[in-house]
Write a structure and sequence with these properties.
The complex is a heterodimer. In chain A, about 80% of the residues lie in helices and about 0% in strands. Chain A is built from six helices and no strands. Chain B is an alpha/beta fold. Chain B is built from eleven helices and ten strands. Chain B has helices at about 5-10, 55-60, 95-100, 115-125, 130-145, 150, 165-175, 195-205, 220-225, 245-250, 255-260; strands spanning about 15-25, 30-40, 45-50, 75-80, 85, 100-105, 180-185, 210-215, 230-235, 235-245. In chain B, the strands form two sheets. In chain B, strands 6-7-8-3-9-10 form a six-stranded mixed sheet, sandwiched between helices. In chain B, strands 2-1-4-5 form a four-stranded antiparallel sheet, with helices on one face. In chain B, strand 1 and strand 2 (about 30-40) form a beta hairpin. Chain B starts with a helix and ends in a 5-residue tail after the last helix. The relative contact order of chain B is 0.17. The chains are: A mainly alpha, B alpha/beta. Chains A and B meet through helix 3 of A and helix 9 and helix 11 of B.
């Protein structure tokens, strides 16, 4: 199949929304990286920069929505073109949400800076963040190179993020039980970890959309829900 | 995805109405249709799409032996209607065409009254015993053609005096007057404006309750709107045949994809 439409303006329309996705992806990558670095280095200025920068991501999403609506109205896309337009809409919504999570991490960083750091958890948060950043990078690469294998590998790697989150959850519980003065910081750290975990889920959605766009089918759910952390309780009597 | 309108679009029956096997058509030395095999379902709208000269109209015309009227045209292979070979020497093509009606690209009412346009077929096939029965048949056909309300007070004025969209619906009424089982439509809307097109499309969707409808169209959006099954023809071969929603979201053959997305093939 040729890559080019008989109507070349149609090609330009489709290229432009995909270019916007890549631009938005770059901004979200930077937001996550900066949010986590601000937390690590206790840098309140950098955290503030992430919070302010989220507006640009939201505006880009709005622009993408307008452009995709216009393409649907004017071009009536079908087959692969339709899948491109649909995936652009869904990916931009997921990226926007990732941007919100980065913003929320930065907000909580502001509060965390007011109390002493909880050292042992930093490494796990850093590893989690690193993993999701790499997943996002690969998900965007898979999208632009139309590579469903790479996208599938991103989906498979989300389980690692979930495991790190569950480990951290237990660590934080232990800290809070040891010393109630840590509760405020631990709660914020927990939400930060949860945000990173949610980013992993959103990146998985992006990778799934890439598989759909290329193959016309969503990947099948392979992963079993084996972890029970979400339903765990603590026995204070022990 | 469980939206009612999408469910309604689903094919309601698996009964095969028309079955074509190894069909080949030649116009003199030109090999117009190459080994086409297709099974067309009953109570379903099937759309034939493809670029000009791909053979979709030629194939459509094989289904009621309209190609018999072209001297240099030869048809090989089998086309079965309800399991019976329509090219069998015992089959009377006139009777066949009463069962397999046809509507053409340009509305072509007879230069007669609206009433006579519709009554002509039932009369020559002896479907009415008296005037009252004929009146009934005409009214039923005009209602089914979704034009009754517009013409009931002027049944004896000439059919050619109607607007283009009305003329086309009159032709559809004329085609259904002989109680056909299959309705073939060769670009029925290409000479109509968008409103008349929408009326004809609505009519096609209603006709699907009773008939197997096969429509040739150059408008892919029309194929997507009215049909449940789509067949893509290219250079005389049937490239891909399947559920319309699948063809328009994830076609299997790259040639189908190129054509429906408007790319250079």
């Amino acid at each position: 199949m040729s890559d080019q439409h008989i109507l070349s303006a149609y090609d330009r329309d489709l290229e432009s929304i995909q270019a916007m996705i890549m631009k938005m992806g770059g901004q979200v990558e930077a937001a996550i990286r900066d949010a986590v670095r601000a937390l690590e280095t206790r840098d309140s200025d950098l955290a503030m920069k992430v919070r302010v920068g989220d507006r640009a991501i939201d505006e880009l999403e709005q622009l993408i929505n307008e452009q995709t609506a216009r393409i649907i109205a004017l071009r009536s896309p079908t087959a692969v073109d339709l899948r491109v337009v649909l995936s652009v809409m869904k990916i931009s919504a997921n990226l926007e949400r990732c941007g919100d999570f980065a913003k929320n991490i930065s907000k909580r960083t502001g509060v965390l800076l007011e109390s002493p750091p909880i050292e042992s958890t930093a490494a796990t948060v850093r590893r989690m963040a690193r993993q999701t950043e790499l997943m996002l990078k690969d998900a965007l690469d898979a999208y632009i190179h139309r590579d469903p294998q790479l996208a599938e590998s991103v989906i498979d790697r989300d389980v690692d993020v979930d495991q790190m989150y569950n480990t951290l959850f237990r660590e934080l519980l232990t800290h809070m039980m040891e010393d109630p003065r840590h509760i405020t910081a631990c709660m914020h750290l927990h939400f930060i970890a949860k945000n990173i975990e949610r980013i992993g889920d959103r990146v998985t959605n992006i990778a799934e959309q890439t598989v759909y766009m290329v193959t016309g089918e969503l990947p099948t759910e392979k992963r079993a829900k084996a972890d029970h952390t979400a339903t765990e309780t603590i026995d204070f009597g022990a | 995805m469980n939206d009612m309108t999408l469910l309604e679009r689903g094919v309601q029956t698996d009964d095969i109405k028309i079955s074509a096997r190894n069909v080949e058509v030649f116009y003199g030395d030109t090999h117009a249709i190459k080994n086409v095999n297709v099974e067309i379902q009953d109570k379903t709208v099937t759309a034939f799409i493809g670029p000009s000269g791909c053979g979709k109209s030629t194939f459509l015309r094989c289904i009621n032996r309209m190609n018999d009227t072209i001297d240099i045209c030869r048809v090989k292979g089998d086309i079965l209607l309800d399991g019976e070979d329509i090219y069998d020497p015992k089959v009377d093509p006139v009777q066949l065409r009463a069962k397999v009606g046809m509507v053409f690209q340009k509305p072509n009412p007879f230069p007669k009254s609206i009433y006579d346009n519709v009554a002509y077929g039932p009369k020559i096939h002896g479907l009415a015993r008296n005037k009252a029965e004929l009146d009934e048949i005409v009214e039923r056909a005009l209602r089914r053609g979704a034009i009754w309300d517009e013409v009931k007070d002027r049944l004896h004025s000439p059919g050619t005096g109607l607007s283009g969209g009305q003329q086309q619906r009159l032709c559809i009424a004329r085609a259904v007057a002989t109680e056909p089982e299959v309705l073939l439509m060769d670009e029925p809307c290409s000479a109509l404006d968008p409103i008349a097109t929408a009326q004809v499309e609505e009519l096609i969707d209603e006709l699907r309750q009773d008939y197997s409808v096969v429509i040739v169209t150059h408008s892919m959006q029309q194929a997507a709107r009215v049909s449940q099954k789509t067949a893509f023809f290219h250079l005389g071969t049937l490239v891909e045949y399947g559920a319309t929603d699948r063809i328009f979201t994830s076609p299997e053959d790259p040639r189908t994809e190129s054509y429906i997305t408007g790319r250079i093939g």
